[in-house]
Amino acid sequence: MSGSEAAEPLYREAIARLGRSRVRGELARAHLLYGEWLRREHRVVDARESLRISHEVFSMIGARAFARRAARELELTGESAARPPRLSPETGNLLTPQEEQIAGLASAGLTNAEIATRLFVSHRTIEWHLRKVFTKLNITSRRQLRLAPHRFHGSADQRPGE
């Protein structure tokens, strides 16, 4: 196994382990490093998710230098970190891409732990995003999320067991 082939499982393991801890800054840094590595490997589409997570967390915790670094890396993948939240025509509410993705996975029936594993974040991060989604959609439960006539990005193509 080459160094490049060995690196990816180690990045993923670091993210998974840090995702189970309360050290958000270190988790964001692991996402940043993994995203930078993916971009250097010319896997820009794969890099974007880790870089978005990194940028979002660094911005939330006030780590401006790291947030700028993540934003620059995102721009190198062809995506802008400064883009505004999307207005979803289905929801009529402002949901960030991350919220939309998490809402889609939750409405498909995944648990917080399953969503966290797929996105390489902690279950607490998922809880935080779902609280924001519930507030924006004016709902109070997963049942209401599943029954809502909304279609979320990621719900149709990422069902449990696939």
Task: Explain how this protein is built.
The protein has 162 residues and is mainly alpha-helical. It is built from eight helices and two strands; from the N terminus they run ααααββαααα. A two-stranded antiparallel sheet has the order 1-2. A hairpin with a 6-residue loop joins strand 1 and strand 2 (94-95). Helix 1 packs antiparallel against helix 2 and helix 6 crosses helix 7. The two termini are 28 Å apart. Residues 83-88 and 153-162 have low confidence and may be disordered.
Question: In terms of topology, how is this protein built?
Answer:
Elements: H1 3-19, H2 24-40, H3 44-61, H4 64-76, E1 86-87, E2 94-95, H5 97-107, H6 112-119, H7 123-137, H8 142-147
Antiparallel strand pairs: 1-2
Helix pairs in contact: 1-2, 2-3, 2-4, 3-4, 5-7, 6-7
From the structure above, extract its key features.
single chain, 162 residues, mainly alpha, two-stranded antiparallel ribbon, disordered C terminus
Mean pLDDT over the full residue set: 80
Q: Measure the end-to-end span.
A: 28 Å
Proportion of strand residues:
under 5%
Helical stretch tally: 8
Number of strands: 2
How would you describe the shape? globular
- Strand adjacency order, main sheet: 1-2
Rg, Cα atoms, Å: 16 Å
**Major sheet details:** 2 strands, antiparallel
Order of helices and strands: HHHHEEHHHH
Query: Are there runs of 5+ residues with pLDDT below 50, and where?
Result: 83-88, 153-162
Tell me the structural class. mainly alpha
**Residue share in helix:** 55-70%
